[in-house]
Write a structure and sequence with these properties.
By secondary structure, the chain is mostly beta strands. It has no helices and 35 strands. 48% of the residues are buried.
């Protein structure tokens, strides 16, 4: 990477392709010292912050992004022969502790919720969520109108989830009880929390919606090929279009700015503070919250159609690169 930009390539790691279809490209331990990634050949990898391999564990056909706690590493594994998904718990030394069947609903990674690890269950027509304790016992289960459309948002002790039943639902993270349900457009995706507003996309990116935290519809807006929403700051949601990064005002759904970055289908960006980081093909870009470019650098290896999003850990950015990931140290 160029010396004139505040970004420097630390290392790259070849994993023969990342597992799953989308979501964060890696998970990072709470202390930032270990990086975990699932690959497309059924292995979970543990890497040091310096990029060296600590261990790898064969788990199945394809391994999702993990979530990491002091109790272990939790990931979803696809079993091609049975057309089923399993939630796996692995300890810090790379030993499999337990595995649970969770249905056939896509490749959605697990997420932390309340006292446990939350995973989507069932399929697209019928499903819900199940919350597991660290020892594999079920804390609670909850059904949703058809299956969840993706990994939900968990904020303030509440789980906000889009469903294939054309509804957005809110569940209590402690016991799974339903707080509210509101009808939306078709197959609404998981929302982003922008200030006190939930912003989501439905109908394959053709519509955007905003809701209050108690489920009141605030506005609807038409869109064109809109990607999932991520929170930018307390007033803007950031999304991708066809070759664009778009900032949407949470107050009314209007477009604050659009940045032409190129490419067809872009992975979701990551936004923090006053920066937005996004990858388009070979290029990693940093934008300001005003939509103006700050810097851009070539990663060196094509990621093809990979839709995994970057992960920011302190001053290091992990991004898909080639058939694995690249670690990029940033200062701006």
């Amino acid at each position: 990477m160029g010396a004139e930009t505040p970004a420097a390539l630390a290392w790259q790691y070849d994993a023969a392709g990342l597992g799953g279809l989308y979501g964060p490209c890696v998970a990072v331990s709470p202390d930032g010292e270990v990086v975990y990634l699932g690959d497309a050949n059924g292995k979970l990898h543990a890497l040091s912050r310096a990029g060296g391999r600590r261990w790898e564990l064969a788990l199945g056909e394809e391994v999702s992004t993990s979530v990491v706690t002091s109790d272990g590493i939790f990931c979803v594994v696809w079993d091609q022969e049975r057309a089923r998904r399993r939630l796996c718990a692995v300890d810090a030394s790379g030993k499999l502790r337990w595995t649970k069947d969770v249905g056939d609903n896509g490749y959605d990674p697990p997420v932390l919720a309340g006292r446990g690890v939350l995973v989507a269950t069932g399929g697209t027509d019928e499903g819900g969520f199940r919350c597991y304790a660290a020892d594999g016992t079920v804390l609670w289960s909850a059904s949703t109108p058809a299956g969840p459309t993706g990994t939900p948002l968990v904020a303030g002790g509440v789980i906000y989830a889009g469903t294939f039943g054309d509804a957005l639902v809110a569940l209590d993270a402690e016991d799974g009880s339903r707080l509210w349900e509101v009808s939306t457009g078709g197959d609404v995706g998981p929302p982003a929390l922008v200030g006190d507003t939930l912003v989501a996309v439905s109908d394959g990116g053709a519509n955007r919606h905003a809701f209050s935290l108690d489920g009141e519809l605030l506005w609807d807006a038409r869109a064109e090929n809109s990607g999932p929403m991520v929170a930018g700051n307390r007033s803007l949601a950031i999304t991708t279009g066809q070759g664009t990064i778009d900032a949407i005002r949470a107050v009314d759904g209007s477009t604050a700015w659009t940045y032409e970055i190129g490419g067809d289908w872009l992975p979701s960006p990551v936004a923090t503070g006053d920066r937005i980081y996004v990858r388009s093909g070979l290029v990693l870009c940093a934008l300001g919250m005003d939509g103006k470019p700050v810097w851009s650098e070539a990663l060196g290896d094509s990621t093809g159609e990979d839709q995994h999003s970057p992960v920011l850990s302190g001053k290091r950015l992990y991004v898909p690169s080639g058939a694995g990931i690249a670690a990029v140290d940033i200062s701006g």
